[in-house]
Write a structure and sequence with these properties.
Blueprint (H helix, E strand, L loop, with lengths): L1 E7 L4 H10 L6 E7 L6 E5 L2 E5 L2 E10 L4 H12 L7 E7 L17
Antiparallel strand pairs: 1-5, 1-6, 2-5, 3-4
Helix pairs in contact: 1-2
Length: 112
């Protein structure tokens, strides 16, 4: 089992959710986050005062899945979230040792 963590631009969330639904992904956790990478932030003007926004708004998706669907999920996110510009985001894949569904006590793949 794998945990796929993707950090994407907020306006791409609905498109990514739709493409994940099309390939059969049933559960996604979404968190609004802020951060920066090569994009670094930008300067804005507010009421005549210039200020720097260091941390840019992003959306973090977390998807627990079976090993055999990992590549299709990564491909769906990559195709849908890409704008071709800096700051499109990153995808991280980590191994899950154990998953437990709290309500039923199911473990492993049954808990997904």
């Amino acid at each position: 089992m794998k945990l796929i963590t993707a950090v994407i631009k907020p306006f791409k969330l609905d498109d990514v959710r739709e493409s994940l639904s099309e390939i059969g992904v049933q559960g996604v956790t979404v968190t609004e986050v802020k951060g920066f990478g090569r994009q670094k932030g930008h300067t804005e003007l507010y009421r005549g005062a210039e200020y720097i926004i260091d941390f840019l708004p992003k959306v973090k998706l977390e998807i627990a899945c079976e090993d055999d669907v990992t590549d299709s999920i990564i491909e769906a996110i990559t195709k849908t979230a890409s704008t071709g510009k800096i700051g499109d985001g990153k995808i991280f894949v980590t191994s899950l040792e154990q998953v437990v569904r709290i309500r039923t006590g199911e473990t492993g793949a049954d808990a997904l």
